[in-house]
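Record pair follows.
FIRST:
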Amino acid sequence: MTAATTETKHSTAATAVKQIADPAAFRMDDIVIGPGVRAVGRFQTAGFIFVDGMLEDAEVECRSLSISRGAEFHGNVSAQRIEISGTLNGDANASEEIVLRSSATVTGRVSAPYVVVHRGALLSGGVESLERQPDPAKGSELGTLPSLSRNRSKRNTNLFVGATVVGLLLVVGAAFAWFGGEPTMPQGTTQHAQ
């Protein structure tokens, strides 16, 4: 796996926005910053970036970024999906989702349509929930969950009917046992198995 491009952090904002808007211009390589490796600079790829070591003074644009437990990322990232188990100091912007695992430590701003924070993750900074974009593959206007309010009355009715049936079965079973559902043996007699 090779780095798509590595350069110093001397680029204008207009160039960065233009490059983000045209991800097809990036190579489809995956980039791995291995354990014990310290890297500095700008990384662009249409593939994945895995940080297992340390990435400092970074400007990253990729499809997906993964920061593993014990790894450090200092800088800014723009990706479709970001998953953090290690340390992020900077800003993270995702077009789909950001997942902060329980071992994550984030100092900075995270923004995405979906932000998932597991119990134990440390977040110091800001969280911005972005507008969800239409998902043509799902055929819905927005890639959101369906409204639960329209299903609530049906679910409540089903729960009521189920509880009523269980209650009636318990009452019938108790009445059967109480009023002689089980034959009694006269005293002094024993039943022998054959």
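SECOND:
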Amino acid sequence: MKPLRKKLFLILGFFIVSLVSLSPAVEFGDWSADFNHPYFSAWHPGFTLKLSGTNPDTGQTGWRQYAAQGSVIVEGVKCLPVRFTTSAGGDIYLYLAQDTSGNIRYIKEGATSFMPSPPMYCPATTSDSTTWTINYIMGEHRFTIAYHDTYPENSSGYGPYSNSLYIRHYWDGALMGLIAVAPRFGFVLYDGENVSVINEAALCTVEGTVTDAWNDEIIPGATVWMGRTPPRKTTTNAEGFYRFVDIPQAYFDLEAQKPLYRDFKQTISTILGGTLVRNIEMIPQSGVIKGKVQDAVTGLPVSGATLQLDGDESTRVYTDAAGLYRMENIRVGGHYLHAWGSEHNLDGRSIEVSLDQETEENFSLSPVYGSIQGTLRNSLTMAPVAGATVQLDDRIETRIVTGADGAFQLSEVIPGSHYFQVWATGYLYYQKRLTLALNESLNLGDVLLVPESALLPTETDFDFEEGPEGWTSHSATPSFVAPQSSSDNGHLGLSPGGSQNCFGFWESPFIAFELGKTYRIRFAVTSDQDDPAQVPLIRLRVNSGNNQLAAFLVIDSKTDADSSPTMLSKTYDLVFTPPSSSSSAGFTLSFDLVNIATTDNAAAWIYLESVAIQAVDLVPLE
């Protein structure tokens, strides 16, 4: 059985009244009461009234009790049954409803039907002079006469109550008593005696605050309903507060609406008197933003890119390995979406989100560029080199040509590793591998180009008796510790200086090699160690003019100690044939020290004693 949804109203003496609907199209349990009815609050669910009295004509005493029951269907109308019991044991049901005009109507008594013309019991619109009589109930002639007046303050401190209902209770013409019914407090008087057990208003107040379910911010201007037919409606104030007064104890649908929010609806059970607090959290209307982020230059997806909405860090999402992103629960309406990557520039645009729709927004982000600048100079005279071509990574679109001052600047360079390439008429080809950090402006300073006239002759030998003979020492700091170096006593020396993370080398000047010929380069090497197993790793190299390794030999005491040099000199040969497609007419030689995470003697010295270059003829094997 559906719970009783509406308050009851009792007209004492002969009947109990309830606000229900007579129309078959509007059921009693679904009808929303007319809260302007002045006696609607007289009863509440479960209220039972028992009145005792004496017939002034016969002296007969007795009592009558009225108790509201659950709703039933009577002749197609959903009605409120009221059980009427007398002290003589009479027990019968009265069936009440409310017609489409809001008038309380008496539908049926026991087995006696008053359809289709039920008597009126309580009109929807009352006045100070309303009276009516009832001529038939349970086979007896009895009636009431009602009027309106102000109920004064009584000895219990209740009152005054304006527009109270006074009922003269008659039985076959004999006045049995006077009953007073005050709005909001129900029955307060019977023949001058206070019969009310209610110490506070039978109606309650429902109030609360409407807030945003996602950020707890108050929502002013939201429309709130208590039931819908007819509606009790209000609007939240600037503090998001709403309040309904004079609400009976029943079940109600509490609803709220506000543009850009999803409709709220919740069934609540009100209380008997007091204040019921029901705060409302409204969920914003929302949609989804999704898309893809790619590199504007390469077209490849950008993973780990950041997407942020309206400058709010809490909205950030990141692209996956495929460059895809998805932002859930985004409020409908206009937003501004930003996208950027750790190596890509910021981009942003306005976007409109629709209710429960997926809005796709893709980005092509330009890389965060850096730059490379410097000056090309003649390695012998330090004069600027004009008319030289500078490029990166063999890409024609990066090429620039130096002016009279030899200066160059490569702009919009993508971060990462690149080959820096230079050539000019009368100079050896120059290439260097370099790494550009994010948004870095890399200044190479003076880049020295070697004139072809500075090439040492083919088959040049070195004995270092007069010093390094143009050889220069180099290191790879900060990744490795620079070795100690020496160039006296007729040799070139290198030592880790105690470091287990050491790399460095001596490099020769450019030497002319005739393309197509084969050369034997003989290195004479010694060390200061008696035990060859303690000698650090040695590497001998031939390098082309573009800084590419052309040939090399590794001497490692850990793989074959007998091949490592001691204080007695050992010779090592590299056989090298410059390719006919070589971009450089000159090559350099290198003598490397490598001492990284080994058990070799970190204080050892190695020495390059001499280098001899000789063209040779290769004899094919039979």
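COMMENT: DSSP finds no helices and 48 strands in the chain.
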